[in-house]
Design brief:
The chain is of the alpha/beta class and 236 residues long. It has 6 helices and 10 strands; from the N terminus they run E-E-E-H-E-E-H-E-H-H-H-E-H-E-E-E. Helix 5 packs parallel to helix 6. The radius of gyration is 17 Å and the shape is globular. The mean pLDDT is 92.
Length: 236
């Protein structure tokens, strides 16, 4: 069965000037993500995985190389088209939840649905991540794991083709982290959203359809994972 690309990246290099020193965050990276896939991108801090995610998400541009989102070449896209891409096609989940404290869970999600073409209802998105009973709670009334699930609901409510998650369990304990990972797995299974989870935590890798390991700005390995580990069996 033919797999269709969400992303194709070829020859990505990213250089940063840090004073008099040039830092090579990515070195000639080739990367693919396919429709409906749950991919885990594993690597230590500084391995280049967040830089890669930011380039895929249109938040940064490579120094060299090319990224395609489906058939669209992102690095030749003008700023208005990139804004449209980020707004409608890709969702982001970060380690810290970036919720607006003065808005309820429902209102935080509604910020996205009000500017989307074909959004889910905020209550529908929150139900998907198991928060149907927390719609009118403010972030200060929610645990860290609940806040992260609001952030996931906000990201998926616009029905993105792909969800990019940078250390989504990085600030959470094991049991809370499992709840968040189950929410991501449910989004992948029920909405068929392609998901890339970036983590330094090797224990999480087992949940992915494919595991890509990064080291020193390069892809060290890229392997399918035929025996996905149930999230209840993941521990760290």
């Amino acid at each position: 069965m033919e797999r269709h690309h969400i992303f194709r990246a070829r020859g990505l290099t990213k250089m940063y000037d840090m004073g008099e020193v040039r830092v090579e965050a990515l070195r000639n990276v080739d990367f693919d993500l396919y429709e409906g896939e749950l991919l885990v991108l594993l690597g230590a801090s500084g391995s280049g995985k967040s830089t890669l995610l930011n380039i895929l998400g249109g938040l940064d541009a490579p120094t060299e190389g090319t990224v395609w989102y489906r058939d669209r070449e992102l690095d030749t896209t003008d700023e208005d088209a990139l804004t449209d891409y980020r707004r409608h096609h890709v969702g982001f989940v970060f380690q810290f939840y970036n919720l607006i404290p003065s808005l309820t869970a429902r209102e935080n999600v509604a910020l996205v649905t009000e500017i989307s073409d074909d959004p889910m209802r905020p209550d529908e998105a929150l139900d998907l991540v198991g928060l149907a009973n927390r719609l009118d709670h403010f972030p200060a009334q929610l645990s860290g794991g609940e806040q992260q699930r609001v952030a996931i609901a906000r990201a998926v409510a616009k029905r993105p083709q792909v969800l990019l998650c940078d250390e989504p369990t990085g600030a959470l304990d094991l049991e809370t982290g499992r709840i968040v990972l189950r929410a991501l797995e449910r989004v992948n299974t029920e909405l068929k959203t392609a998901i890339a989870v970036i983590t330094h935590n090797a224990a999480i890798a087992g949940m992915g359809d494919r595991i890509v390991r990064m080291s020193s700005g390069q892809i060290a390995s890229d392997e399918p994972n035929p025996d996905r580990v149930p999230i209840n069996n993941i521990s760290w």
